[in-house]
C-alpha cells in the first residue's frame, strides 16, 4: 500500500496544511479517505484523477471532512468523463442517505451521478462492519468517540494493514480496530494542555498506538498551535514505535 497525505490540517485555513484527506493506493485500486476543501485539486498533485477513485470513505460529516463531496459529485457529471466499468463505492456512517438527499434538494440533478456509477454503503455507527467492496481488499469500520456517525476504517490487503482514525477522542474501540496494524493514521489535533473534547493530544494518540501495538504511527489533523509544540516528544512518552508527523503531499509506503 501507498499512502499520500492530501491534507493534514483541520477546518482552520492554513497555507501549510490543507483540509483533511488521504489517498491510499493498493495495486490498481485507489481509495480516498475524507474530502476536505480542495481535495480534488490535491488529487491532481498526487497524479490522480477524481474519476479514478474506487472507494470514497467519510469518517464523519463535519464540513472540513466532506466539503469536496459536492464538487466530486458535480465533476462526475462531466460529459467527457471516461467510462468506468465498475462503480465507485461511497462508504460512511449513519446519516449518509440523509446527507445526500439534503444536498440533492439544494443542487438538484447537477450532483446526480450517471446511473450505476455510485454504490452507497450507509454503515451502523455503533458496531464493527466488514466489507469486501474491491477484489483483494478487506475493509472494516468501527465506532470512535466524536460524532454519532463517526467511524474509523481498517484496510487490509496484500498482508498489510492500514487504519485511519478520523476525528476521535480516546477510544477503546479504535484500539481494538487498530490492533496489530502496520500503520495507524491518527488525529492529534492539539498540543498537551490544549485538549478539545472529541479530539486527541499527541500523548493520547500515542497511548492508543501503544495499546494497539501498531508498528508505525502517522499523526495528522493538526490545529495551528501544533506548529509550535514538540509533538514527537509528547507522543513518544506513550508510544515506543516509529512516529511520523504528516506533511501535505508526502507519500508513505507500507
UniProtKB/TrEMBL annotation:
<dbReference type="Pfam" id="PF12706">
    <property type="entry name" value="Lactamase_B_2"/>
</dbReference>
<protein>
    <submittedName>
        <fullName>MBL fold metallo-hydrolase</fullName>
    </submittedName>
</protein>
<dbReference type="InterPro" id="IPR036866">
    <property type="entry name" value="RibonucZ/Hydroxyglut_hydro"/>
</dbReference>
<dbReference type="InterPro" id="IPR001279">
    <property type="entry name" value="Metallo-B-lactamas"/>
</dbReference>
<dbReference type="GO" id="GO:0042781">
    <property type="term" value="F:3'-tRNA processing endoribonuclease activity"/>
</dbReference>
<keyword id="KW-0378">Hydrolase</keyword>
